[in-house]
Amino acid sequence: MTLPQGSPTIRVTAMPGDANPYGDIFGGWLMGQMDLAAGSVASRHAGGRAVTIACDAMKFHAPVLVGDEVSVYARLVAVGNTSMTIEVEAWRRARHLEDSTKVTQARFVFVATDENRAPRRVAPLPDHIPDHIHEPPR
């Protein structure tokens, strides 16, 4: 497997407080990082508040260990009237190595909401998705 193109939406080091007694990172922590990355993409496309409404087909392929660098890549893949679907992949890299391993992937669905937390319309999926939808600003 090869890393997704572009820069990760989020990059973080897994710490001891994120792990179980065996040194494996909690799946919930990893899912939270993925939700943060997807939320960043969704709120940027929506131009405001967007909330998670679903996460589909998450499967863990490999463990994340304390000290690993976790890179989360998020990509907008579909847009409805008020919803956005974001494909998310998480990759780990051992602290002192160069090789990365894909550890999980999932699709997150967000809905754009207004100041009253009611759904609001979003722009359609562009023909060409600008880099800033995939990547954080530099």
TrEMBL record:
Keywords: Hydrolase. Pfam families: 4HBT. One of its GO terms (molecular function) is long-chain fatty acyl-CoA hydrolase activity. Residues 4-116 form the HotDog ACOT-type domain. Gene3D superfamilies: Hotdog Thioesterase (3.10.129.10). One of its GO terms (biological process) is acyl-CoA metabolic process. GO terms for cellular component: cytosol. Transmembrane segments: none annotated. The keyword Hydrolase applies. Belongs to the acyl coenzyme A hydrolase family. This is Acyl-CoA thioester hydrolase.
